Amino acid sequence: MPLYKTIRVNDFTKVLIWKIEESLEDLTKGIELTEQSKKRVDAMKSILHQQGFMSIRQLLKQAGYVDADVFYDEFGKPHLKDKNYLSISHSFTFTAIIISKKKPVGIDVEKQRDKIVKIAHKFTPIEEYNTIANHEALVSKLTIVWGAKESLYKIYGKKKLQFLHHIYIEDFSFIDTKTTGVIKYKGYVSSYDICFLEFEGFTCVYAF
Predict the structure, then answer these.
(1) Global confidence as pTM
(2) φ and ψ at residue 91, rounded to 5 degrees
(3) CA distance 9 to 161
(4) Which in 105, 108, 174, 184 has the greatest CB count within 10 A?
(5) Looking at domain 3-102, which CATH architecture does it have?
C-alpha cells in the first residue's frame, strides 16, 4: 500500500499523499463505492483518472472514512458528512488529501512541467520572476505559485474567482517551504498559511 507521505500540519489538520503504483483492480480492494461513485468511475475514459479516484478513496480509508462519507456541492467541491473540512488533488501518479477538524483547507499536487512558463502570465504577474535566471528554478517557483492559488481557489469553493486578479501569494524562498496567501473578491478578504514540498518531479501545496 504505497501511502507515500503523511504530514501532521497541526493538532487538527493532516495531509496524506499516495503514489499510484498498483493496478486499478488492486486499488479497488477493500473499497466500497456508492452507486454514484461507481457511475463516475465508469464514465472516466482514462485508467489513470480511475486509479486516481480509487487511490483517493484509499487515502480516505487511511483517515478513517469511506466513500459514502463524501459528498459534492453544486460547485463540485468535496465535503465530509461529519463536517470536517476536506480537499483532494490528483496529478498523474500522485494523489493527496488534506483534512481539518476546525478550519477550511485546500491542497494541490502538480507535476513540474516546462509549459507552466508559457501560461504563467495568465495566473501571476510574470515580470516579478525576471530575476530568476535558472529555468528549473523558474518552473519550480511557478508551480508552487500555481499550486498555492489552486489551493486557495478550492477553499473558496465557488466559480468566477480569477487566479490573476483575486488571489495573491506572498513571495517566498524555497528554503522556507511556506508562505501566505490572500483571497480578495467583491468585498471578501481572507488570509491563509501555505506550505509546499517537492518530490520526484512533483509539487504539493496545501493551504489552511
Answers:
(1) 0.95
(2) -145, 110
(3) 26
(4) 108
(5) Alpha-Beta Complex (3.90)
